[in-house]
Amino acid sequence: MEEPFFFRRGEVPLFGMLHKPEGTPRLGFVTCHPFAEEKLWSHRVFVSAARALAASGHAVLRFDFSGAGDSGGSTAESSLDLYLQDLAAAVAELERRVPGLERIGLIGLRLGASVAALFAERAVENESLARLRAAPLILWDPVVDGEAHFQELLRINLSTQLAVYGKVRETRDQLQERIRAGETVNVDGYEIGKPLFESCALPKLLNAEPKRHAGPALVVQIAANEKTPERADLAALAGAYPAGTASRAIEHPFWREIKPFYGRAANLQRVTQEWLEKTHV
Amino acid sequence: MSELRAVSFPNQKGQKLFGTLHMPPAGAQQKPCVVLLSPGVKMRVGPGRLYLPLTEALTALGHPVLRFDFFGLGDSEGELSETLLADIYNHIEVGRYVDDTLAALAWLRSQGHSRFLLGGLCGGAITALLAARRDAAVIGLISLGMTVTLASNAATPGKYLTTKQLDGKRHQYFRNLLKLSSLWRFITFRSDYSTIWHSMKRLVVKPAPKPAAAITGVAELPPEQRGNANPLFPPAYFEFLQRGGKVLMLFSEKDRLWSEYEEKFEVPFAERLKPLAGNIEKHVIANANHVMALAEWQREMVAFTRGWLTRTWAPS
């Protein structure tokens, strides 16, 4: 059964979609989508993954962070801290709607995976998030270098300038200066402001220092093909978890506009499900 | 403050479609319900959440707004069999989601709504028009970047580009002439020679002006002008206008859809359009790209739509 609804983080309405399995689930998941237009391109991959998990007996809450999808707010005001608050509200909403859950895992992609990883570390200290501590943490191609990620986003702005004006009117440095001065910069229709830029555009958004999340953690590198070199940073991140596993899934970068239509990421889904079975969850 | 509700309803195949219904503030005089249709494979918020500021403006004017996902997309049930985006786009252009749109109207009727405006960007706009043809309760269209061709971006061969597109390409080629990477592509057979040829040919071969005849369908156009024109567009458009439907045609200046509309529809069908011109309001947003990414373009789109709605459905 799939049930759409709105819930709140303070005054901000957040959109959620609950995938409820038959029977009484003991394990639930909350998904964390990537930023900006990557969310729309990857949306259906999350839908199909959530349906597969529900078919395996797990409850899944997909939700839109503030400033994304149907949720309220705007990316101009977004920040890492607000994303973590959104996620806390989503976890609480899943607990409220599916009261019998023993553990709540997180699944994230790209910047959403980074938010999930940072949230899992916070959960260690927070009694109200006890259900997350021994639960699976699944990170699909997490953004480790936030600075590089935001440089990629700014490149989209430069491409738009080139396409529209035939030249770059504002350089990357000027764009960054404007953000730091408190203005916003448009990326594919999303305004990036200072709070998000300063909290997420960090070279070590995720580092390889030992992590406290004690539950099983899966870090998946999404590789375009077999020849794609292994990412040492992701392997190191997996190694930082007490029960971490590094894995690879061959998929196109489905979070961007590419020629194939991605209704599901079959390899990624298989790698994830097999790992879940292996870790006896 | 408008009232917001997550909703679902079945399509004709029994698949559940998910959406959000936005009701005007309590006490506002209720106006026709607007259904915003998803473009391409993007979900019901549109690229860059384009539909959100529009929804806000529409509800403020008293229009309830429904946004929903077509089957196989967004949150809705169903699976698409295509493996390429281009194939999905082509199927949308010939009406794949008309039935889902009619299902949305049927559901809205069950909720007490009786008159509708359909709107959307690109694939959403052509779906709106094709659905309007099949439901007389649709009285207006909010078209953002109407597509009048069958070709998708990725598959458009050089011969189908409009003269504006070809001129733009030629300027780009000239700018890249001194770039080593461009020259390397050219001499290693990786350039799009067909487009290069067609764009350069325009420097020496000027097409003779076409006689303005009262053309009634795409099939009557000469092959070189027919090109990749969507044969479903002109009959649906004229039928809707002739029954009194009102149309807002908004385009982005830097979008190929604008030059395609002009060259592949407006010019060849000019005679037939003349008596119906009073039902069409057209506006081009300067410099805007296909998805109206910048906030200033979105504001202009919203402001013009608001003005059109106020002028067209002002209390008599």
What distance lies between the first and last C-alpha atoms of chain B, to the nearest angstrom? Answer: 27 Å
Q: Kindly report the name of the CATH homologous superfamily of the largest domain in chain A.
A: Alpha/Beta hydrolase fold, catalytic domain
| Mean pLDDT across all amino acids of chain A | 96
How many beta-strand segments of chain B?
8
Helix content percent band of chain B = 25-40%
| Oligomer class | heterodimer
Strand order of the largest sheet of chain A: 1-2-4-3-5-6-9-10
The number of domains of chain A is 2
How far the N terminus sits from the C terminus of chain A, by CA atoms, comes to: 21 Å
Side-by-side strand order of the widest sheet of chain B: 1-2-4-3-5-6-7-8
Helix/strand class of chain B: alpha/beta
- Tertiary shape of chain A: globular
Overall pLDDT metric of chain B? 89
Work out the strand percent of chain A: 15-25%
| Helix amount of chain A | 25-40%
Task: Write out key terms for the chains shown.
heterodimer; A: 281 residues; alpha/beta; Rossmann fold; eight-stranded mixed beta sheet; two-stranded antiparallel sheet; 21% strand; B: 316 residues; 8 strands
Walk me through the topology.
The complex is a heterodimer of chains A (281) and B (316).
Chain A: E1 2-9, E2 12-19, E3 27-32, H1 37-55, E4 59-63, H2 80-97, E5 103-109, H3 111-123, E6 137-140, H4 146-165, H5 172-180, E7 185-187, E8 190-192, H6 194-200, E9 217-223, H7 232-239, E10 244-250, H8 266-278
Parallel strand pairs in A: 3-4, 3-5, 5-6, 6-9, 9-10
Antiparallel strand pairs in A: 1-2, 2-4, 7-8
Helix pairs in contact in A: 2-3
Chain B: E1 3-10, E2 16-23, E3 33-37, H1 51-60, E4 65-68, H2 85-93, H3 98-110, E5 116-121, H4 123-132, E6 138-144, H5 163-176, H6 180-187, H7 193-201, H8 223-226, H9 233-242, E7 246-252, H10 256-266, H11 270-273, E8 280-285, H12 295-312
Parallel strand pairs in B: 3-4, 3-5, 5-6, 6-7, 7-8
Antiparallel strand pairs in B: 1-2, 2-4
